[in-house]
């Protein structure tokens, strides 16, 4: 191999295991990487090398002709996703050492595809609150890795595993990807089953996918059968024929100078590559999406966490308790209006996005924030909320650097159920954004 195992992409691992140049048990090198780096990054909620090696040896016994498309690829799993061989603790004292004896649907799919489930990554409590777990940003341990998929973003960004699963209810997949300088796909809502994940909001909860290489996201879309009705062309995207719509949205006043700089640089780089860009002003109804998203989360969160609250109220984070007691006094009328108005806007945004090769919008308001105890704030998700509740696929594309040397990404967005077309676009855009200065090393 021309580079160490921990630097390999998932696509490279699959090629090497198929050719016999790499055994799955060679994952011992990744175990060593975790043991070296976890005291700093603290990305793992549960990590058991013996289980990992036993699973690796079992995968090595599978005949070559029966090996799956992810054979031997190590995957970190956010600790709100059930795994039969590791506990699912949800960063909650209620579920400490809790061990459901089943796999979530997405884990079943990964195992059937030959993936090596590597361990459980840290999350905020129930993937809800902004009080962060012990995890630090691998590029600056004084800063947040984002949340709620804190550990998943950090361990991929730190070359501990090539792939990881997160979830997103607000901005919990895309924001950590930006902070850690990696790719992430939040697919169309319900395109991947969320059976076996701790529920927060049935309307918003979406499985998220992390990688350091866009080709690995292509691999995952194949594994999870994310296929467009009209597949993208085999030829690479010709940027001279591409048109990008830059969407500031109603939360643009929250954008800090670092993000504004990345935004303007992205436009300049795309124009220099021959693409057409224009700013898109969304209809004023879209300005209400933040309020409608909040109404849905509070009411669906009330239903989701009621049992935990009634059983052990003293052990819940106050953020979770606020949902159950409905501290915002959200009414059923407001809940219904939120559902209906958002549903009305989904086909509208689909038609707007369809006019462009992709929409481009900020992934974050700023670089990763400095961690301050005891909150360990995971960052502002304002730029992510509308795309989550509208159910559109989003990819964070890294490429830019803030004044403190931390990565900043921008989000590419496309109509619902067009993941393949979106990644086809990302493959060319990432080469352009790479000129923005960020390089994962």
TrEMBL record:
Region (Disordered): 127-151
Signal sequence extent: none
Domain Amidase: residue ranges: 28-423
Entry-linked SUPFAM superfamilies: Amidase signature (AS) enzymes (SSF75304)
The protein's name in its UniProt record: Amidase domain-containing protein
One Pfam family per UniProt: Amidase
GO molecular function, one term: catalytic activity
Source species, domain of life: Eukaryota
InterPro entries in UniProt: Amidase (IPR000120), Amidase_dom (IPR023631), AS_sf (IPR036928)
